[in-house]
Each structure stands twice: as structure tokens, then as C-alpha cells.
Amino acid sequence: MINTQDTGAHNGLTLFDFNNDGIEEILYRDETDLLVIDGSKPVPSLISKIPCLAATFRREPCCC
Length: 64
Prior knowledge:
By secondary structure, this protein is mainly β. Helix content is about 0%, strand content about 35%. It has no helices and 4 strands. A 4-stranded antiparallel β-sheet has the order 1-2-3-4, with no helix packed on it. A hairpin with an 8-residue loop joins strand 1 and strand 2. The radius of gyration is 14 Å and the shape is globular.
């Protein structure tokens, strides 16, 4: 299991093949980190966890 920190927003993920091996890594960003996940096996595993603060629960609506 990979724990994430998200207190209210709807987060998404994307795929990218960083090492050009034909297998895409999963990228997921929560409120505190950018996670790079190996999803090529039945149980995904964390490759890297990069600090990246972004409070997803306090975004103000755009008034423009």
C-alpha cells in the first residue's frame, strides 16, 4: 500500500516512461509529494517520493 495525503480535492495521475524501457511509470501528486510509482506488477511499488507542497483543499474559485 502507498499512503497519500489528500484532504479534499480530486487528484489525478498520469503515466510516463522515464527510463525508455517500454513500461510507463505512474505519476501522482498529492498535497505534500510527487510520487513515482512502478505499476508494472500486480502490487504497485513506490520508486521515488519527491517533496512538492500544494494544498489541494484550499483552492479559491477563479473570479476572472
